[in-house]
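Schema walk-through. Below, the input block comes first and the output block second. Nothing else is stored per chain. Lengths vary across the set, and this one has 219 residues.
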Amino acid sequence: MIDFTPELQSLIQQVGIPSLAALSRVSGVSERQILRLRRGEVEKIRVEVLLQLSQVLQVSLDKLVTTFSQQSLLLPAPLSNQEELCQRIVDLEQEYLLLQQQLEQQSEKLQQQFQQESLQLLESFLVQFPTAAQKARENPQLPAANMLPLIQKPLEKLLQAWGVEVMGNVGEELCYEPQFHQLVKGNAQPGDKVTVQNVGYRQGDKLLYRVRVCSRISA
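--- output ---
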């Protein structure tokens, strides 16, 4: 079996990587795949893995394939082997370009889907709020409370769709819990009564924003 370890060690030294184990950590490629590279088993390595290694080692994809291919050591190599190697490089480049296109299309599709779903949830707000705002400008005496449902209901639908839960109510009295509450005024010990100034939010088990609370006890 041909051993390409010296060639690989030479490359990692050129880019300042101290060991093959460090190459695995830096590139995110498993040591098993690196072992295949050392054995010249390029045809068994996925194109995305070869690409990761080529980027870390700062060599082109075709150079990486030719350097660590067993066929490259045949002197002179039979024409059929040379053709196979060239075709392998071409196939890898085409596969890489196809993967890039698929990832870009998928990312664009997901972004469009996210935007469309968000706009649907905010439909009533987008349609009605500009009209309500214009009426408020025309009639400054119009109660602001009349406009609250236009903002509140779409926002509640959006938060519900994203699994976001509101924590606390403005003006509500709670027992102070530093894990979930941010004290913005006064002093408080865990368990002391505090008043909600701004609500908090969490999504499942993840705390997004702590509830901002005030204490009656002065600092």
